[in-house]
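Write out this protein's structure.
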Amino acid sequence: MTELNWQKSTYSEEGSACVYVATAPTGTILLRESDAPETILTIGARQLGALISALKPHRPATTGARRAASRRQ
């Protein structure tokens, strides 16, 4: 079995609950939390992107994007 290379999220602070990520040989992305390392979430790249987008705070469109949208209307 291949050893996984777990990397700590850059958003995790020292001494706090940390999120770790690894990539399986199949390309599947694995996530785990330092408080429960035996529990591993398996996710695909597309699904991880959707999860991150859903968790990010909503940001209004940039001025350039607003202008381009208003020109299309």
